[in-house]
Design a protein that fits this description.
Blueprint lengths: L11 H12 L30 H14 L3 E5 L5 H12 L4 E6 L2 H13 L6 E5 L2 H4 L7 E6 L10 H9 L3 E9 L4 H7 L6 E6 L5 E6 L2
Parallel strand pairs: 1-2, 1-4, 2-3, 4-5
Antiparallel strand pairs: 5-7, 6-7
Helix pairs in contact: 2-3, 6-7
């Protein structure tokens, strides 16, 4: 059972899976892939679920309910924590699909198991592979995008590359949430010429929430 107060999700089956994942967040020693001393190969962290925190997920749930969202996308799915919040909102809106992208096969399978355990498997499509390819065609406009990227070695961040791919596929009035505040991502999303208004929320050390206005 999820013991967080005032959770907007009322389904005990969904809350139980979220609570289990939150209570078992294995972290690698030394700071994980964001440490300059550790590997940045995502396959080296197949046992670690790098995920949003519940307060971010609950905000996603509420915003998607308010939007009456039916189609959303996320990068990266990891073990499916964010996917659970999206899928619960879409189900409670009457139906829809979360399009997720995850490059590590073991995490794809873990996410599918967690969704099935929560009774939400029918509301998610997890695409295995590089998000710069898997999210290039979302099959139509989406209402919300989560970009929870992965640190690269050099050049533009994955978050920056992915937002440039998915922004044209996001409906005006739709939201983007970013978890890691990559500087080049923030430069894109805060530039009015790209069609967004944006703010930083005091969640998990700084979460960027942006609204597409044109």
């Amino acid at each position: 059972m999820n013991d967080r107060p005032h959770s907007p999700i009322q389904d005990p089956r969904v809350n139980a899976v979220i609570a289990r994942l939150q209570g078992a967040r294995p972290r690698p020693s030394g700071g994980g892939p964001r440490s300059s001393f550790n590997s940045r190969d995502p396959h080296a962290y197949a046992e670690q679920g790098f995920s949003i925190h519940p307060e971010q997920g609950e905000l996603i749930y509420l915003l998607c309910r308010g939007l009456r969202a039916t189609r959303v996308a996320e990068f990266a799915t990891s073990v499916g924590m964010s996917t659970l919040y999206f899928a619960a909102a879409l189900r409670d809106n009457g139906g829809g699909t979360v399009i997720g992208s995850e490059i590590v096969p073991a995490k794809v399978e873990a996410a599918k198991r967690n969704l099935a355990e929560a009774g939400l498997a029918n509301y998610a499509e997890i695409r295995e592979g590089d998000a710069r390819k898997t999210l290039r065609d979302l099959g139509g406009p989406v209402d919300f995008v989560l970009i929870d990227g992965w640190p690269g070695e050099s050049g533009p961040s994955l978050a920056r590359e992915v937002i440039e791919i998915v922004a044209p596929q996001l409906l005006v009035g739709g939201y983007v949430m970013n978890d890691n505040a990559e500087p080049d991502y923030l430069a894109f999303i805060r530039d009015p010429r790209n069609g967004f208004v944006s703010m930083t929320l005091p969640l998990k050390g700084g979460t960027e929430l942006s609204l597409k206005v044109k």
